[in-house]
Every structure is written in C-alpha cells, then in structure tokens.
Design goal:
Number of helices: 13
Shape: elongated
Order of helices and strands: HHHHHHEHEHEEHHHEEHH
Distance between the termini: 66 Å
Radius of gyration: 25 Å
Oligomer: single chain
Helix content: 55-70%
C-alpha cells in the first residue's frame, strides 16, 4: 500500500528547536506574522517537501524515508533563514514576508550540499592505497609481501559521522581533534552545527594532508599491517613518534617491546614529559614546513600529535 505523502506532510510538526519555528513564534508575539501568512509559509515548505519526496524516494510506501525528507525540508529552510538573518529574530521576521520561502530552502541546501560533497570526497579519497603493480615492479617489491587493503585516514567513528552527514544528520556534539565516539545521528537544528561540521571536516582533510606528506614508501610492509587497527593513523603516528624518541629516525614500525621502551622513557605517571612533548611537536611543525604544507595543516598536525601523545599516555600501565 502506498503511503499518502500529502497526509504525512500535513501531520508533520515544526520542531520548536529550529530557528524557523522560533522566528515564527517571535513574529506571532510581535503581531508581525498573521496566522494566514504563517499557514501560507507552511504550505510552501510542504510543497518543497513534496518535491524532495518525488525526487529522492523510490518507495512511496517507506513512511520513514518520507518523514526524513519532510524533516530535511524544514531543516534546510530553517538553516537558510538563520543564515540570511545572521541569527537575528527581528531580521528574520522582516525577511519572511519579503521573500519566497524556497529562497531560504535554496540557501540551506547550498550550505549543506557543500559539506556533503566534501564528505563524499573524503569517503572516497581519504584512504592510502597500496602501490600499483607497476610501482612495485620499479621498487623491486614482490606484491605478495604487501597488504592489499587500503588504510583509512578516518576512524570508524568518523566514518559514521561522514555517513550521517550524507543524509543531513549530525552524530557529534562538540568539535574533536579526532572523532572517537559518536551519538545516534539526529537532525540538524542550528547553523552553529553546520559550522561545527565544516570545522570537523577540515580536521579530517588536514589529517589527510599531514599523512600524505610523510615518507610512506614502506607503509604497506609493516607488520602487523596498519589496516587491522581501529585507528590506523594514530598507530602510525605513535610509531613515528616512538622511533624518533628511541632511534632518532623517521620510521613507523612499532613492536610491543619498543612501545614499552618508549613509554618508560617518555612518560611519567601517564603524562608525557614536557621536554619530549615540545621537541616532538616542534619536529612535526618543522617537517611540515619543509614539506611546504599550509599553516592550517601544520596547526592541525601539532594538535593531532598532542592528542595522540595524551591518548597513548592512557595506555601506560602503572608500575
């Protein structure tokens, strides 16, 4: 049986947390948006929702998918209004009667599509691929010695974050150097969340640039392979840090004995010695400077190394 999409839109309510709902309530309080005008605005959003459903829903019996598109219509319109009014309720009340509601939807849609395009690009390209057969031949490397799986630069939690974004959902509440845990994806309510997503995507993008600037020639000959770790780039980074501290060389191989030696030398009660910490952060900043990486990548990489050092300190067993 086909779900009646028109009835679903009619039954949908405007979440009070949305800026659009707050603007309509503010206009009502000021007697600036008559009931008829508010109804007309709602009908315009309903028309947008109908169009989204027609364009993006193959199975009209899937009520859950239909409700998602209805929510998306409300969300994008609200984000566009908040963006256009700079979050000022008085300005929003002035804008609503003077503009077609679809204009605000288009603004919100443009904001989100830019983020979604970046998420799609990361899902496809934020992976270190093993050398091609031609490259292996030039290097004189037998391909049977190499792991064949790509190494994800994003964590599993970041994978969930990226996938949620593709359906206009957010799964984090705060900006993180590395996303380690996510929540159940929920609809977007505020422009500040869009800005946070933008910054979080930049973190993953900067990590990609940082990693790809490293000497990765022997990355796929490491034992065990990096692809088995839930957070391979953190393991790679700690391997590099440990080799710099123990042997003063840029290498990623890290066995358990070397890791323990590194812990004993670099940590006291789970806290990294400040002298080692600063030397290491200076090293990666200088390395990326020589690699001609832009300032945002260098700044992020320093924060990332600091975060990795702190997380590694939590693995130090008390004596």
């Amino acid at each position: 049986m086909t779900t009646n999409k028109f009835s679903l839109v009619a039954e949908a309510s405007l979440d009070r947390r949305l800026f659009l709902a707050r603007a309509l309530a503010h206009g009502d309080t000021l007697d600036r948006i008559p009931r008829e005008q508010a109804d007309a605005l709602y009908q315009s959003i309903a028309a947008i929702a109908h169009k989204l459903i027609t364009m993006k829903t193959a199975d009209l019996s899937d009520a859950s998918a239909l409700r998602t598109h209805i929510q998306t219509a409300f969300t994008l319109t609200s984000l566009g209004l908040e963006y256009g009014s700079k979050g000022d309720l008085d300005k929003a009340v002035n804008l609503l009667p003077k503009n077609r509601i679809v204009k605000f939807f288009q603004i919100g849609n443009t904001l989100m599509e830019k983020l979604i395009d970046r998420a799609r690009h990361l899902l496809e390209h934020a992976v270190i691929r093993p050398p091609s057969r031609e490259t292996q031949s030039l290097l004189g490397t037998d391909d049977t010695d190499l792991e064949t799986e790509g190494i994800q630069i994003y964590t599993q939690a970041e994978l969930e974050f990226l996938k949620a974004l593709l359906i206009y959902r957010i799964s984090i509440r705060t900006l993180q150097v590395t996303i380690r845990d996510t929540e159940t994806p929920r609809p977007l309510f505020h422009l500040a969340e869009v800005e946070m997503i933008d910054q979080q995507l930049a973190c993953i993008e900067h990590r990609c640039d940082y990693v790809k600037a490293l000497p990765l020639e022997n990355l796929f000959t490491l034992d065990p392979p990096l692809s088995i770790f839930p957070n391979p780039i953190e393991h790679l980074t700690i391997g590099l840090i440990a080799n710099l501290v123990l042997y003063r060389q840029a290498d990623f191989q890290l066995d358990e004995d070397a890791r323990q030696d590194f812990h004993q030398l670099a940590y006291v009660d789970g806290e990294v010695r400040e002298s080692f910490r600063q030397q290491l952060l200076d090293w990666i900043a200088q390395y990326l400077e020589q690699a001609q990486q832009p300032e945002p990548v260098k700044t992020y990489a320093v924060s990332y190394w600091d975060d990795c050092l702190q997380m590694e300190g939590r693995q130090v067993s008390p004596e």
